[in-house]
Amino acid sequence: MRQKILFISLLVIFSLTQTFAQQKSISGKVTDASTGQPVVGTTVSVKGTRLATQTDNDGNYSLSVPNSAKALIFTTVGYESQDILINGQAQISVSLKTTVSNLNEVVVVGYGTQKRKDLTGSVSSISAASIEKVPITTAQQALQGRAAGVQIINNDASPGGNISVLIRGVGSLASGGNNPLYVVDGYPTTGGINNINANDIASIDVLKDASATAIYGIRAANGVVIITTKKGTKNNKVQVSLDAYNAVQSKPKEYNLLNAQQFASLSNEVEAADSTHSYFGLPVWHTPSALHNIDWQNAVYRTGLTQNYTLGIRGGNEKVQAAMSFGYYDQKGIIIGSFFKRYNLNLNLDYQATSWLKSSTSVKYSYQDANNPITGFNLLNVATNPPTMDSGSRITPFIKDGKGNYGFYNPLKNVVSGFGNPVYSVETNQYQNVTNYILASTYLEATIFDGLKIKTNVGANVSNFSSFYLQPEDNRASLQYAGVIVTPANYHQTINKTFE
Questions:
Q1: Does residue 311 surpass a pLDDT of 80?
Q2: Whole-structure pTM over 0.85, yes or no?
Q3: Which CATH superfamily is domain 103-229 in?
């Protein structure tokens, strides 16, 4: 117990030390270029990351950024965004220019569109040009720092982790009770937004006030996010595009922990000073120089790699417009065995049957596979596991030898029997978490006369989730130690199908 307390204390101290050592603070003020007045609520974000803050009532901001940060992005509704290079500066103040041309922009407001100058509700819009400025992998990330009053929260840093969107703050304590309604190409859906390829998005409009409930009812109580995907063109040409994105995620800063020799020496000191004689280290620890050292952090952490590719083909004429795209996303996390893969297929087809009748069809398919085998307390064990497994397995004292044998801690000694080999668990257990997702919608729109249109909309949202977990029987310790119970196999399976 004392040993664990010591390790956890060291972990916290080194964590705080490294955190402060790797960051620097940047502050400044954001003002209106024409009036000199402070611009309240401006989003200040670190380019290429998810770090962001907002200016206060006086236009001031303060943000802690990594030493490797290159530039800051200043964005707010009604002003032109600015990218400012840091170049070692601790004070960065900017003056933003207002945008007036956006008053004639067409904004999707539900079942129709309006010019921005005619809007009475609160709407934020993000165009494809704005989305393309910063590499993103999800639709939620496209909103981050670009829509005033919209809060993006990354709940889970694991590959493919969940991202929450709050439009008017927390309104319910229920799980998932604060999620907005998503409308994709005119079809309302309560899920599946993580299945949308961000490179296919043409625009995002966020309905933030209560007027959205007049269109979508109670489902819009937490706001509405309207996503419109890219359509075909009318210029009698075929447009082919390839979007590629690659990123490397470095291993986390490792804690400076004791090696096997230092750990054994500390254990011997604790054992010698224990007047109650309640603590006993392993006999093999009495000879620290003979121990084999194990670095659990180096064994579990790795360099992460993210790849995202989208091939798009768009074309058409005045009569028919078509757009098709195929996307591939692969993220390998910084923890061994963690990954998120996604395949996307998107098809949009628009047909102008007559001058007064047109139709539009949208089909989106996504296949996902994800795994995150080491989480929570198991990840903490990486820093608290003793740095040696000597006296455990009689075959190998290492995490894994060249013959495929895995080491383990002595199962008969309480001081180490509770620790496990996470590398063995990751490489021998079997996991599957597969989701097949289809979102299809079609509509007919008839123009009776100018100012009056009739539109029908039909759609379906199908999601099939299948997962299983298999932990094989583990008899390694029982083969070497009499009386040790064989760890039985463990299997469970989950199947979940939804249809809207």
A1: yes
A2: no
A3: TonB-dependent receptor, plug domain (2.170.130.10)
